[in-house]
Amino acid sequence: MIPRSSYLRGLLQSSGFGSFSSKLGAYACYASKTESSLQQVSRTWSPLHYGEDEYANVDWDNLGFGIMPTDYMYVTKCSKDGNFERGQLGRYGKVELSPSAGVLNYGQGVFEGTKAYRKEDGRLLLFRPDQNAIRMMMGADRMCMPCPSIDQFVDAVKQTALANERWVPPPGKGSLYIRPLLMGTGPVLGLAPSPEYTFLVYASPVGNYFKEGLAPLNLYVEEEFHRASPGGVGGVKSITNYAPVLKAIARAKVKGYSDVLYLDSVTKKNLEEVSSCNIFLAKVFVQSFLSADVMSLQIIALVLRMIFILELCTLYGLCLKSKFY
User: Fold this and answer.
1) pLDDT at residue 22 is higher than 50
2) Superfamily of the domain at 219-322
3) Where are the transmembrane segments (predicted)?
Protein backbone atom coordinates (compact mmCIF):
# COMPACT_ATOMS: atom_id res chain seq x y z
CA MET A 1 0.00 0.00 0.00
CA ILE A 2 1.30 3.47 -0.89
CA PRO A 3 0.86 6.18 1.79
CA ARG A 4 -1.42 8.68 0.07
CA SER A 5 -0.10 11.94 1.48
CA SER A 6 3.61 11.29 0.82
CA TYR A 7 2.92 9.78 -2.61
CA LEU A 8 0.80 12.70 -3.81
CA ARG A 9 3.32 15.22 -2.52
CA GLY A 10 6.10 13.49 -4.45
CA LEU A 11 3.89 13.20 -7.51
CA LEU A 12 3.22 16.92 -7.59
CA GLN A 13 6.91 17.74 -7.17
CA SER A 14 8.10 15.30 -9.84
CA SER A 15 5.54 16.59 -12.33
CA GLY A 16 6.74 20.16 -12.17
CA PHE A 17 4.07 21.29 -9.74
CA GLY A 18 6.57 21.46 -6.88
CA SER A 19 6.55 25.25 -6.65
CA PHE A 20 2.81 25.31 -7.24
CA SER A 21 2.05 22.80 -4.49
CA SER A 22 2.76 25.43 -1.83
CA LYS A 23 0.02 27.61 -3.33
CA LEU A 24 -2.44 24.76 -2.89
CA GLY A 25 -2.05 24.97 0.87
CA ALA A 26 -0.48 21.56 1.50
CA TYR A 27 -2.52 19.60 -1.02
CA ALA A 28 -1.55 16.20 0.31
CA CYS A 29 -2.49 17.16 3.86
CA TYR A 30 -5.88 18.44 2.73
CA ALA A 31 -6.57 15.35 0.63
CA SER A 32 -5.77 13.05 3.54
CA LYS A 33 -8.51 14.71 5.62
CA THR A 34 -11.22 13.50 3.25
CA GLU A 35 -12.71 10.67 5.27
CA SER A 36 -15.13 9.49 2.62
CA SER A 37 -15.42 9.60 -1.15
CA LEU A 38 -18.94 10.97 -0.73
CA GLN A 39 -19.66 14.10 1.29
CA GLN A 40 -23.14 14.68 2.63
CA VAL A 41 -24.77 18.01 1.81
CA SER A 42 -26.33 19.25 5.05
CA ARG A 43 -29.81 20.73 4.77
CA THR A 44 -29.41 23.96 6.69
CA TRP A 45 -31.19 26.39 4.38
CA SER A 46 -33.03 26.41 1.09
CA PRO A 47 -34.01 29.66 -0.66
CA LEU A 48 -37.05 28.04 -2.26
CA HIS A 49 -38.48 26.41 0.87
CA TYR A 50 -39.68 23.35 -1.01
CA GLY A 51 -40.44 20.20 0.93
CA GLU A 52 -37.67 17.62 1.07
CA ASP A 53 -39.80 15.16 -0.91
CA GLU A 54 -40.86 17.60 -3.65
CA TYR A 55 -39.39 17.13 -7.12
CA ALA A 56 -39.32 19.35 -10.18
CA ASN A 57 -41.67 18.44 -13.02
CA VAL A 58 -39.25 16.25 -15.00
CA ASP A 59 -39.62 12.93 -16.82
CA TRP A 60 -36.96 11.19 -14.71
CA ASP A 61 -37.24 7.92 -16.65
CA ASN A 62 -36.11 9.58 -19.89
CA LEU A 63 -33.42 11.91 -18.63
CA GLY A 64 -30.61 12.50 -21.12
CA PHE A 65 -27.48 14.61 -20.88
CA GLY A 66 -28.50 18.12 -21.85
CA ILE A 67 -29.00 21.51 -20.25
CA MET A 68 -32.20 21.82 -18.23
CA PRO A 69 -32.41 25.23 -16.52
CA THR A 70 -32.77 24.90 -12.75
CA ASP A 71 -33.70 27.49 -10.12
CA TYR A 72 -30.47 29.01 -8.83
CA MET A 73 -26.82 29.62 -9.64
CA TYR A 74 -23.93 30.89 -7.51
CA VAL A 75 -21.84 33.93 -8.54
CA THR A 76 -18.81 35.74 -7.12
CA LYS A 77 -16.25 38.13 -8.61
CA CYS A 78 -12.71 39.29 -7.94
CA SER A 79 -10.23 41.85 -9.28
CA LYS A 80 -6.51 41.49 -9.97
CA ASP A 81 -5.72 41.18 -6.25
CA GLY A 82 -7.04 37.63 -6.45
CA ASN A 83 -9.48 37.92 -3.54
CA PHE A 84 -12.97 36.72 -4.36
CA GLU A 85 -15.83 38.51 -2.65
CA ARG A 86 -18.50 36.63 -0.75
CA GLY A 87 -20.59 34.78 -3.32
CA GLN A 88 -24.36 34.86 -3.60
CA LEU A 89 -27.08 32.65 -4.97
CA GLY A 90 -29.26 34.24 -7.63
CA ARG A 91 -31.85 33.08 -10.09
CA TYR A 92 -30.45 31.02 -12.96
CA GLY A 93 -30.25 33.28 -16.00
CA LYS A 94 -28.11 35.14 -18.49
CA VAL A 95 -24.70 36.59 -17.70
CA GLU A 96 -23.81 40.07 -18.95
CA LEU A 97 -20.35 40.39 -20.51
CA SER A 98 -18.34 43.14 -22.16
CA PRO A 99 -17.59 42.46 -25.85
CA SER A 100 -13.91 42.80 -24.90
CA ALA A 101 -14.07 40.33 -22.00
CA GLY A 102 -10.95 38.19 -21.74
CA VAL A 103 -12.93 34.97 -21.93
CA LEU A 104 -14.58 36.00 -25.23
CA ASN A 105 -11.47 37.34 -26.96
CA TYR A 106 -8.66 35.17 -25.64
CA GLY A 107 -10.40 32.15 -24.12
CA GLN A 108 -9.20 32.83 -20.57
CA GLY A 109 -11.35 30.39 -18.64
CA VAL A 110 -11.42 26.99 -16.95
CA PHE A 111 -14.28 24.83 -15.72
CA GLU A 112 -15.04 21.75 -13.67
CA GLY A 113 -17.76 19.13 -13.53
CA THR A 114 -19.05 17.22 -10.51
CA LYS A 115 -22.34 15.63 -9.46
CA ALA A 116 -24.78 15.45 -6.57
CA TYR A 117 -26.60 12.16 -5.96
CA ARG A 118 -29.73 11.39 -3.97
CA LYS A 119 -29.69 8.40 -1.63
CA GLU A 120 -32.69 6.25 -0.72
CA ASP A 121 -32.94 8.00 2.66
CA GLY A 122 -33.13 11.41 0.94
CA ARG A 123 -29.56 12.55 1.66
CA LEU A 124 -27.63 14.41 -1.05
CA LEU A 125 -24.05 13.27 -1.61
CA LEU A 126 -21.13 14.80 -3.52
CA PHE A 127 -18.08 12.94 -4.80
CA ARG A 128 -14.89 14.63 -3.53
CA PRO A 129 -15.56 18.23 -4.62
CA ASP A 130 -12.27 19.23 -2.95
CA GLN A 131 -10.41 17.33 -5.69
CA ASN A 132 -12.20 19.36 -8.35
CA ALA A 133 -11.21 22.51 -6.47
CA ILE A 134 -7.56 21.49 -6.58
CA ARG A 135 -7.74 20.70 -10.28
CA MET A 136 -9.30 24.11 -10.95
CA MET A 137 -6.45 25.73 -9.02
CA MET A 138 -3.93 23.99 -11.26
CA GLY A 139 -5.81 25.07 -14.37
CA ALA A 140 -6.18 28.65 -13.16
CA ASP A 141 -2.45 28.86 -12.47
CA ARG A 142 -1.68 27.63 -16.00
CA MET A 143 -4.11 30.17 -17.50
CA CYS A 144 -2.77 33.05 -15.35
CA MET A 145 -5.97 33.46 -13.34
CA PRO A 146 -6.77 33.87 -9.63
CA CYS A 147 -8.91 31.09 -8.19
CA PRO A 148 -11.30 30.63 -5.26
CA SER A 149 -9.88 28.74 -2.30
CA ILE A 150 -10.72 25.08 -1.81
CA ASP A 151 -13.20 26.00 0.94
CA GLN A 152 -14.85 28.67 -1.24
CA PHE A 153 -15.15 26.23 -4.14
CA VAL A 154 -16.63 23.42 -2.05
CA ASP A 155 -19.03 25.79 -0.29
CA ALA A 156 -20.24 27.16 -3.64
CA VAL A 157 -20.86 23.64 -4.97
CA LYS A 158 -22.78 22.65 -1.82
CA GLN A 159 -24.89 25.83 -1.88
CA THR A 160 -25.76 25.25 -5.54
CA ALA A 161 -26.73 21.62 -4.91
CA LEU A 162 -28.90 22.53 -1.94
CA ALA A 163 -30.61 25.47 -3.65
CA ASN A 164 -31.53 23.19 -6.57
CA GLU A 165 -32.42 20.18 -4.42
CA ARG A 166 -35.73 19.51 -6.15
CA TRP A 167 -33.81 19.01 -9.41
CA VAL A 168 -31.69 16.17 -8.01
CA PRO A 169 -33.14 13.01 -9.63
CA PRO A 170 -34.64 10.22 -7.52
CA PRO A 171 -32.20 7.45 -6.52
CA GLY A 172 -31.05 5.48 -9.55
CA LYS A 173 -32.58 7.92 -12.06
CA GLY A 174 -29.54 10.14 -12.65
CA SER A 175 -27.72 12.95 -10.89
CA LEU A 176 -27.49 16.73 -10.62
CA TYR A 177 -24.55 17.76 -12.79
CA ILE A 178 -22.80 20.79 -11.25
CA ARG A 179 -20.63 23.02 -13.44
CA PRO A 180 -18.20 25.44 -11.69
CA LEU A 181 -16.89 27.99 -14.21
CA LEU A 182 -14.03 30.48 -13.76
CA MET A 183 -13.57 33.10 -16.48
CA GLY A 184 -11.92 36.41 -17.24
CA THR A 185 -14.83 38.84 -17.52
CA GLY A 186 -12.98 42.17 -17.35
CA PRO A 187 -12.44 44.17 -20.59
CA VAL A 188 -9.08 43.71 -22.32
CA LEU A 189 -7.92 44.61 -25.84
CA GLY A 190 -4.25 43.69 -25.94
CA LEU A 191 -3.14 40.16 -25.13
CA ALA A 192 -2.99 40.24 -21.32
CA PRO A 193 -4.72 38.73 -18.27
CA SER A 194 -8.21 40.04 -17.62
CA PRO A 195 -8.56 42.78 -14.96
CA GLU A 196 -11.60 41.05 -13.43
CA TYR A 197 -12.76 37.45 -12.96
CA THR A 198 -16.08 35.76 -12.32
CA PHE A 199 -16.59 32.39 -10.64
CA LEU A 200 -20.05 30.93 -11.08
CA VAL A 201 -21.67 27.56 -10.47
CA TYR A 202 -24.80 26.28 -12.19
CA ALA A 203 -26.47 22.88 -12.34
CA SER A 204 -28.66 20.64 -14.48
CA PRO A 205 -30.21 17.20 -13.87
CA VAL A 206 -28.69 14.59 -16.17
CA GLY A 207 -28.80 10.93 -17.06
CA ASN A 208 -26.01 9.00 -18.78
CA TYR A 209 -23.65 11.06 -20.95
CA PHE A 210 -23.66 8.51 -23.77
CA LYS A 211 -26.90 7.20 -25.26
CA GLU A 212 -25.48 3.67 -24.89
CA GLY A 213 -25.72 4.07 -21.11
CA LEU A 214 -23.49 1.51 -19.41
CA ALA A 215 -23.09 -0.56 -22.58
CA PRO A 216 -19.65 -0.64 -24.29
CA LEU A 217 -18.83 2.36 -26.47
CA ASN A 218 -17.83 2.23 -30.12
CA LEU A 219 -14.80 4.54 -30.34
CA TYR A 220 -13.15 5.86 -33.51
CA VAL A 221 -9.33 5.96 -33.36
CA GLU A 222 -8.37 9.39 -34.72
CA GLU A 223 -5.08 9.57 -36.64
CA GLU A 224 -5.32 13.06 -38.16
CA PHE A 225 -6.43 15.35 -35.33
CA HIS A 226 -4.88 15.45 -31.85
CA ARG A 227 -6.43 16.15 -28.46
CA ALA A 228 -3.31 17.68 -26.90
CA SER A 229 0.42 18.18 -27.38
CA PRO A 230 3.53 18.49 -25.15
CA GLY A 231 3.82 21.92 -23.58
CA GLY A 232 0.18 22.77 -24.26
CA VAL A 233 -2.83 23.01 -21.96
CA GLY A 234 -4.27 19.54 -22.51
CA GLY A 235 -3.62 18.72 -18.86
CA VAL A 236 -6.03 21.36 -17.52
CA LYS A 237 -9.75 21.93 -18.11
CA SER A 238 -9.31 25.07 -20.18
CA ILE A 239 -12.36 26.10 -22.20
CA THR A 240 -10.04 26.36 -25.22
CA ASN A 241 -9.53 22.58 -25.27
CA TYR A 242 -12.97 21.55 -26.41
CA ALA A 243 -14.11 23.38 -29.55
CA PRO A 244 -11.14 22.00 -31.58
CA VAL A 245 -12.41 18.41 -31.11
CA LEU A 246 -15.93 19.09 -32.41
CA LYS A 247 -14.95 18.44 -36.03
CA ALA A 248 -13.43 15.07 -35.16
CA ILE A 249 -16.49 14.10 -33.09
CA ALA A 250 -18.91 15.12 -35.85
CA ARG A 251 -16.96 13.10 -38.41
CA ALA A 252 -16.90 10.03 -36.14
CA LYS A 253 -20.63 10.19 -35.38
CA VAL A 254 -21.48 10.35 -39.07
CA LYS A 255 -19.70 6.99 -39.32
CA GLY A 256 -21.74 5.58 -36.43
CA TYR A 257 -19.19 5.89 -33.61
CA SER A 258 -19.92 7.05 -30.05
CA ASP A 259 -16.84 9.22 -29.61
CA VAL A 260 -13.21 9.68 -30.66
CA LEU A 261 -10.12 8.05 -29.15
CA TYR A 262 -6.98 10.13 -29.73
CA LEU A 263 -3.37 9.04 -30.14
CA ASP A 264 -0.42 10.95 -28.73
CA SER A 265 0.74 13.78 -30.99
CA VAL A 266 4.43 12.80 -31.00
CA THR A 267 4.59 9.11 -31.93
CA LYS A 268 0.93 8.42 -32.80
CA LYS A 269 1.40 5.03 -31.16
CA ASN A 270 0.00 5.57 -27.65
CA LEU A 271 -3.65 5.87 -26.68
CA GLU A 272 -4.19 9.19 -24.93
CA GLU A 273 -7.73 10.40 -24.32
CA VAL A 274 -11.32 10.40 -25.53
CA SER A 275 -12.94 13.71 -26.57
CA SER A 276 -15.21 13.93 -23.53
CA CYS A 277 -13.42 11.81 -20.93
CA ASN A 278 -10.30 9.93 -19.90
CA ILE A 279 -9.68 6.36 -20.94
CA PHE A 280 -8.16 4.15 -18.26
CA LEU A 281 -6.11 1.07 -19.17
CA ALA A 282 -4.53 -1.26 -16.63
CA LYS A 283 -2.56 -4.49 -16.74
CA VAL A 284 -2.40 -6.74 -13.69
CA PHE A 285 0.68 -8.96 -13.76
CA VAL A 286 1.39 -12.19 -11.91
CA GLN A 287 3.66 -10.22 -9.56
CA SER A 288 0.58 -8.24 -8.45
CA PHE A 289 1.74 -4.96 -9.91
CA LEU A 290 -0.62 -2.42 -11.37
CA SER A 291 0.92 -0.69 -14.37
CA ALA A 292 -0.58 2.65 -15.35
CA ASP A 293 0.45 5.88 -17.03
CA VAL A 294 -0.53 8.24 -14.22
CA MET A 295 1.45 11.32 -15.04
CA SER A 296 0.81 12.39 -18.61
CA LEU A 297 0.53 16.15 -18.28
CA GLN A 298 -1.11 16.33 -21.70
CA ILE A 299 -4.46 14.92 -20.60
CA ILE A 300 -7.21 15.94 -18.19
CA ALA A 301 -8.09 14.63 -14.73
CA LEU A 302 -4.60 14.36 -13.27
CA VAL A 303 -5.73 14.40 -9.63
CA LEU A 304 -8.91 12.36 -10.01
CA ARG A 305 -7.08 9.76 -12.08
CA MET A 306 -4.42 9.42 -9.39
CA ILE A 307 -7.05 8.99 -6.68
CA PHE A 308 -8.77 6.24 -8.68
CA ILE A 309 -5.50 4.38 -9.24
CA LEU A 310 -4.52 4.62 -5.58
CA GLU A 311 -7.93 3.36 -4.47
CA LEU A 312 -7.65 0.46 -6.93
CA CYS A 313 -4.24 -0.47 -5.53
CA THR A 314 -5.59 -0.34 -1.99
CA LEU A 315 -8.67 -2.40 -2.85
CA TYR A 316 -6.73 -5.23 -4.48
CA GLY A 317 -3.52 -5.00 -2.45
CA LEU A 318 -1.40 -4.06 -5.46
CA CYS A 319 1.85 -2.12 -5.72
CA LEU A 320 2.05 0.67 -8.27
CA LYS A 321 4.49 0.82 -11.16
CA SER A 322 4.05 4.22 -12.74
CA LYS A 323 5.38 5.75 -15.93
CA PHE A 324 6.24 9.44 -15.80
CA TYR A 325 6.57 11.44 -19.00
Assistant:
1) no
2) D-amino Acid Aminotransferase, subunit A, domain 2 (3.20.10.10)
3) 297-319
